[in-house]
Amino acid sequence: MLPSPLSSQLLAAARGDIPADLVLRDGRVVNVFSGEIERADIAILGDRIAGVGPGYRGSEEIDLAGAYVGPGLIDAHVHVESSLCLPAQFAAAVVPRGVTTVVADPHEIANVAGAAGVRFMADAARGLPLRVILMAPSCVPATDMATAGAKLTAGDLQQLLSDGVVHGLAEVMNYPGVIAGDADVAAKTAAFRGRPIDGHAPAQVGRALNAYVAAGVGSDHECVTVEEAREKLSRGLYVLIREATNAHNLDALLPLVTPANDRRICFCTDDRQPADLLEQGSIDHMVRRAIEFGINPVTAFRMATLNSAEWFQLHDRGAIAPGRLADLMIFVDLAAPRARQVYVGGKPAAAFPDDTAIPDALTRSVNLDLERIDLRVPARSGRMRVIALRPDQLITDAVLVDPTIFEGHAIADPSRDLLKMAVIGRHAGNANRWGLGFVRGIGLTRGAIGGTVAHDHHNLVIIGCDDDSMRRVAGAIQRMGGGLCAAVGEQARALPLPVAGLMSDRPVREVRAMYGELLAFARELGSPLHDPFMAMSFLALEVIPSLKLTDRGLVDVDGFRLVDLFVD
Amino acid sequence: MLPSPLSSQLLAAARGDIPADLVLRDGRVVNVFSGEIERADIAILGDRIAGVGPGYRGSEEIDLAGAYVGPGLIDAHVHVESSLCLPAQFAAAVVPRGVTTVVADPHEIANVAGAAGVRFMADAARGLPLRVILMAPSCVPATDMATAGAKLTAGDLQQLLSDGVVHGLAEVMNYPGVIAGDADVAAKTAAFRGRPIDGHAPAQVGRALNAYVAAGVGSDHECVTVEEAREKLSRGLYVLIREATNAHNLDALLPLVTPANDRRICFCTDDRQPADLLEQGSIDHMVRRAIEFGINPVTAFRMATLNSAEWFQLHDRGAIAPGRLADLMIFVDLAAPRARQVYVGGKPAAAFPDDTAIPDALTRSVNLDLERIDLRVPARSGRMRVIALRPDQLITDAVLVDPTIFEGHAIADPSRDLLKMAVIGRHAGNANRWGLGFVRGIGLTRGAIGGTVAHDHHNLVIIGCDDDSMRRVAGAIQRMGGGLCAAVGEQARALPLPVAGLMSDRPVREVRAMYGELLAFARELGSPLHDPFMAMSFLALEVIPSLKLTDRGLVDVDGFRLVDLFVD
């Protein structure tokens, strides 16, 4: 694993023939191989562990006085973009908590900027005290019923793999395509033969699941019940239990874990916002929760370390053992591990650089010609198909509603909880295309909200009580080069996300503070939701039932087709 | 894993859109993922499992009526040559017992015939109903204190890897070299970076073990105590528990296994002779023994299947799951699994071909010019260094003994249990070199025994009561082109091993019968040992203490040097 000179030095240090760089004395080592806590010294040379056990001397020696030492935690699946921060600031949030490796799917930025976006994430992660293992986004765009900023073919993904930018294939969300054996999907999985191929197969069981597994997919992080997870695990999938900001599966799935099956269960966060990262934490939060639930602490660590290392073939980490990376989490309470100190590659993780070079192209991702966009909806006879939110769910209902007509147009009518929604193309290829519709459940009573975070295509979504407020929001977001905004009259609050319209270039604590103000303002505008921006960000996602709106218009997801706003 | 057309057929079968080739109905499936026994149908298309569960139809359907179905067993480390049979006949012994994959180290034939020998084993294994995964022999020759028939450099091994002949690096026996960071050994491990590298580090613990692991070795099959195994496992090595003909570690190591550590414990047979294979079995014997000891049956299967598949990165087998190879062992008694039927690649394993093409070069491996070989030992003053067997051990003692002198020569003296031993070069490069010495503990009272199986260099070893019998044995073995022989006067019994002097070209049952007659005859000649030929085969192994004899002379293994027979 190491260049030869370093390797021979490492052996010399392991033998004790030369002093280690650092010896951590008298730790309680979380041994994920033996399943036990082992009182031992850890000798480190360079970025590697040289030896575990007695008899080492080091240039530096630190007495742990019996503190626990676990392997650095691994997040088995995360979209860094969902932190609204650049990788360096995402690292600043998670590394101090003990997370030293994340397996990241740059799916969001890829939908905006294609392979260049993926390469930017690789560049932005280089040199950080966080190991970011990038997976190739497998489904860009998600469908042809919306317009993303880019398309990634099997050839594009293969190029990223041969360039060493990506390690495996990220969640293959097009599970119907996998199961059906679609040529396009098959070409992508074929390109990653022998590499980890992550899955995403919500609610798939039985023969469909068999086909999904037979196609070569090896994991799933969409389980919501123990029954579903048990079947997936039994068919050979690694089950990545997810605890995201918008999807909480941990408590429901912890009863799945037994000593007989825990080796194939991992932890992941998928999508976590700054507030959750800073207040609850990341994978460390899941480890604590698992222990609190009654799972053996070493098992909890194993799900957060070795298991993910094995699934992703990252055999140089995930355990405290000779030759492995010296990524360590030191803590004092085995009942609720909280990092007191974190080592990454044998060095205390401290500085998180704030000088990511951002290519100009990524800061010019919002292409709007607002003059040409007409938000009016001419009235027609009949009722309208309206998107109805379900609280805390990504699934929507399609309801039929009589329009409120004013001067020949169907308009928003907050008194009926009927808001207008626009999805406006912001990519080079769809800058003059927009879809219009109505939504129920956001609950604004005045003004409008909008943002360039809109899964998966990340066009500009605006929801409002009147066209004027909607235009103000659009204008503000255009000027910021992307971001989230709420406005009414002259008042506005915003969170600029100038990097691809997805990420801030500010410190994570600032991002969180701005987001907090924005949410407070949205509440002032009448929305009762905890986070109307997040709810909004899924209303344009044309792969989750039942009714969604994209730049191409209303999508009947169940019928997998575009439909008219009005029903005669 | 599959070519695309087959893959799309497999998905169609998994979905249930086309009938499977075979459906095994109502089995009790040993699910190594969930750790449970699962009542289910198994649908098979081609050589793969299409699906597990209900709802499948097949061109052929077999009602298992509740019989158990386990994944085909994996032998994690075996020298096929030790069966004294060609791969086809080794397969005939082990496949009917449920072993469908063996990870084989062709170390013996490589010491005779080099890379050509390794390639022969690959050719001989092709098309068999046994998957033979070849590992590259890492230590050919073992030392320069004996002469092997070939030398394999790091470059040679790399060539075998890039040609797809080998899968990883076989047991790195030169553990002092690994630990010291010797350039030659390091070049070999470097060539196999990212591939499985098997270990062999008897009794190594502490810092030496740390160095061995840091060098990139990932397993060990030399553990003899639970303490040693526990430390190796804790440092990250897979522990391959061995139950060989000449090394029985299973009972001693079963107490190691706990639900917290069993995932990194595998089973292997290393060296098993025909009698053991045919009477006790192979890995199936270990599974039964483990269950009898009290280990959960699914865990026992897991150590014999999934664990090895994971260590060796053989992710297409080791479990009964969609997309994996349909290698199955059907049995009825979970308390003592014995294969009733074995499927390999979806087909019942039945025929074992007996037409292996053997290159002429391999049948001309015994190069002797007996006329030139002088077995006499001129008498000198002083006592002799004599090799003293320890019962059932590979370790010998060095004892100092007064010679029996006759007509100016030191001679064998059965009345004092003092037999003459000769190691005679039989390879092209050492055909005229021989070493002479004396041995105590073989116990012949008349005649001589000899053979071309002599670890690791496999020169001709002869032990006898008189030079005439020794010459008869040598002559017989020369005429057979290699093999084992015992002779006295005109009487002789032999087991011809014409393939590299290591393997018979006869059916395994015949080999066993001939071997049995040979052993009976050796007992008639006075040897009280269960198997004097096996004992003899280790007396020339210059890497195991304390005193050994090679074609270069007596080796003081502790001092790692050649020494004189006589001590002044």
Describe it.
The structure is a homodimer of 568-residue chains. Chain A is α/β, with parallel strands linked by helices and 568 residues long. Chain A has 17 helices and 31 strands. In chain A, the strands form 6 sheets. In chain A, strands 18, 19, 22, 23, 24, 25, 26, 27 and 31 form a 9-stranded mixed beta sheet that branches. In chain A, strands 1, 2, 3, 4, 5, 14, 15 and 16 form an 8-stranded mixed beta sheet that branches. In chain A, strands 6-7-8-9-10 form a 5-stranded parallel beta sheet. In chain A, helix 8 links the parallel strand 11 (219-220) and strand 12 (238-242). In chain A, helix 4 (154-162) runs parallel beside helix 6 and helix 11 (283-293) runs antiparallel to helix 12. Chains A and B meet through helix 1, strand 2, strand 3, helix 7 and helix 8 of A and helix 1, strand 2, strand 3, helix 7 and helix 8 of B.
